[in-house]
Request: fold
Amino acid sequence: MNLLKKCKEKIVETLFPAWCLNCHKEGMALCSDCLSLIEINPWQHCPFCPKPKRVINKGKCGSHQHFALDGLFSAVSYQDPLVKKIIRAFKYQPFLKNLDQQLIQIILAHFQISENKILFHSQDNSCLIAIPISKSKLKRRGYNQSSLLAKGLSTFYQIPILENILIKTKETKSQVSLSKEERKENLAGAFSITSSEIIKNKIIFLVDDVFTTGATMEEAAKTLKRAGAKKVFGIAVAREGLN
Reply:
């Protein structure tokens, strides 16, 4: 870690000490009491149904088999005000990087109570890949939030994480204010693969913080499958529209 980065993190720690974002108790950015208030999703839903449809050990419903993404594991609803507050603080100012630990706990809780058995069913052939971000966002934020989550899952499950394999090669607009169709157009051709041989016949789990329309993960899944990936599933902390 270079000196400038250390200084930036020290400033953040000084300006934003460890107070719970919700109840303001001193100790950590989200205390265990407030973490326990978040309702964990016990189901897997089709990623592409406008009104999420439950699927068990299938990944997606029959109407959306033509999509590249084979399924999605989403731990909580993004409509939960506390979840939204945590993720925004993690991604944007004040850039509370250490919230990754609580967000990883949320994902793990989802897997522990879920009835799905797809996850890492063939560990020798499975790997994790974080959704990449642009160089400008990485420079501004200082970290890729999805990469932090993927590293935590890799450590817990002992599944390898592949870094610098899926890269973002196109500077895209912010997705926040775009429609579903505009998001697809914005992301078209945004990703590329640096080594097809490494991902050939792999079962890949794409990790991101929030799943909204699915345009980002679908474009990444298309890119990975064109390069030879066998299956591509998504893992997200939160999903729009679960309520």
Notes: The chain has a mean pLDDT of 87.
